[in-house]
Structure formats: structure tokens, C-alpha cells
From TrEMBL:
SUPFAM superfamilies in the cross-refs: UBC-like
Protein name: Tumor susceptibility 101 protein
Highest taxon in the source lineage: Eukaryota
Species this chain originates from: Triatoma infestans
Taxonomic lineage: Eukaryota, Metazoa, Ecdysozoa, Arthropoda, Hexapoda
CDD domains found in the cross-reference section: UEV_TSG101-like
């Protein structure tokens, strides 16, 4: 018998009622996610059975819609501690390393770094992921190793992998692989368990083509020795955070305008 979410949370979590409200709200807003109770393995070899949300989240990159496979692990102290989040590509996909994602797929965001138990929640976290991945898509297709490939990835009978464009049918190809960008400094990956995720079967446009070479920041000359790598890193992080805040403000501004219209319509209907 599969245990219910309530029984799992009551057995494992310090604040089951708060965790349940946060999980249910996220599942109601993002129908492509589902909850699962599974074993999480920490970097030091310890493990613990925890609840995770897995599935895909929608992003828009240059006007085209894509679905990004993710997994969000809730610590048993939720919401006192931030979740552990990962991108979960299928066998035909590869992680695009950036300031947001390391080579193991672990996600790093300002929202996670500044997690506040009183105000942070899963819906807000997912929204920040959507904005960040809309600027920097975290996955791309692996290069082909054979001229002939099946229309879908080979998959075991007990798992549901994402159907991938680029191997036949009416799907356009994914971009070719590019060299990795450097990992964020001072972070390590996770030994979290691997599992497959469902993926949208609709005709998505091709993933964006990544450049074949990466732009390297110019090394400051001897006449500008006061500009250090720390200054450059701080400037980049500030620019990214400003961009995220702009996206969030646009999103919430649009939602506020829609709510105002609905409230005005309700008032007019009540007044006859």
C-alpha cells in the first residue's frame, strides 16, 4: 500500500502541516510536478528518506516554450532549511554548466542562498527557476554517436523518459554540445539518487544553439590592477540578480493587473 503524503510527512518531518501546505500549493500551480518519497544520499554517505517534487517546469527562451526536468528535495526540517534542487536530464540530454547549475545538476540560486523560513516557499523557488533558466537553459542534447537513431531514447519498461527531439519524426534537432563553463567556486555536487522524469510530447521548437566558443573576460592590464576577479564576479552576480528581480517584478505586476480587472468586474456585476 502506497503511503499518503500526510502519513509520510507526519512520520519524517518536524513541521508536517507547514510542509504539506507548501507541497500542495506547488502541485496545484505546477501540474507537471508530482511528489515522491525516496532515499536521499548526502555527500558524506549519510542517507535519509525524504519527500521530493519531480517533473518538468515550463520556461520561455527567446519566445519559444521548453520543459526543464527538475527535482526538489525537501529537508525534514522544512521550511527551516532550504530544499536541495537538481536538474535531471534524460540519457540523451546533457547539463549546461553555469552559475546556476554545476556538472552534477545541482542548482544554485540567490533564492536558495537567502532562504527565509518565514517568507520563502516552493512556488516562489520554482518561479525563480523559471526566470533563471529562461535566461540560461540548463540542458542541451548530447552529440550523436551514430547516423541512425531510434525516434525516442531506449528506456526500461518501468521508467518513463522524456521523448527527445533530434532523432526522427517531426522534431527539429537540439543544439550540439559546447565546452563546459567553469563550476561555481566552493561548491560540490550531490550523490542524490537518479531516476527518470516524464517530458512533454508536444512539438517543441529546437533548443537554442549555444556558441561554439565561450567569451573569456579580458585580463586587466597593469595600469588597472585595482580591478580584481572578485570585482568582476560581484559585478556579474549583481547584474544577474537585477535581471531576476526585473523578471519577477514584471510577473507580479501582470498578475496584480489581472487581479484588479477581476475585482473591478466582480464589483460591477454585484452592482447590477
Amino acid at each position: 500500500m502506497i503511503p499518503s503524503l500526510e502519513s509520510v510527512l507526519a512520520q519524517t518531518y518536524a513541521r508536517p502541516d507547514v510542509a504539506r501546505r507548501d507541497i500542495i500549493k506547488a502541485l496545484e500551480n505546477y501540474k507537471t510536478l508530482s511528489w515522491k518519497y525516496d532515499r536521499f544520499v548526502f555527500n558524506d554517505g549519510r542517507f535519509k528518506d525524504l519527500v521530493n517534487l519531480e517533473g518538468t517546469i515550463p520556461i520561455s527562451y527567446k519566445g519559444n516554450p521548453y520543459n526543464i526536468p527538475i527535482c526538489i528535495w525537501l529537508m525534514d526540517t522544512h521550511p527551516n532549511n532550504a530544499p536541495m534542487c537538481f536538474v535531471k536530464p534524460t540519457p540523451d540530454m546533457q547539463i549546461k554548466v553555469s552559475m546556476y547549475v554545476d556538472h552534477n545538476g545541482k542548482i544554485y540560486l540567490p533564492y536558495l542562498h537567502d532562504w527565509n523560513p518565514a517568507s520563502s516557499e516552493l512556488c516562489g523557488l520554482i518561479l525563480v527557476m523559471i526566470c533563471a533558466f529562461g535566461e540560461h537553459p540548463p540542458v542541451f542534447s548530447k552529440p550523436r554517436t551514430a547516423d541512425v537513431q531510434p525516434p525516442y531514447p531506449t528506456q526500461p519498461q518501468h521508467s518513463a523518459f522524456m521523448p527527445m527531439p533530434g532523432a526522427g519524426g517531426n522534431y527539429p534537432p537540439y543544439p550540439s554540445m559546447i565546452p563546459h563553463q567553469p563550476m561555481p567556486l566552493g561548491v560540490t555536487g550531490s550523490n542524490a539518487t537518479n531516476f527518470s522524469l516524464p517530458y512533454s510530447t508536444e512539438n517543441n521548437p529546437p533548443y537554442p544553439t549555444f556558441p561554439s566558443t565561450l567569451t573569456t573576460p579580458q585580463t586587466p592590464s597593469s595600469n588597472s590592477s585595482t580591478i580584481t576577479e572578485e570585482h568582476i564576479r560581484a559585478s556579474l552576480l549583481t547584474a544577474v540578480q537585477d535581471k531576476l528581480m526585473q523578471k519577477l517584478n514584471e510577473y507580479f505586476g501582470q498578475s496584480r493587473a489581472e487581479l484588479d480587472i477581476l475585482e473591478q468586474t466582480s464589483v460591477e456585476l454585484n452592482q447590477g
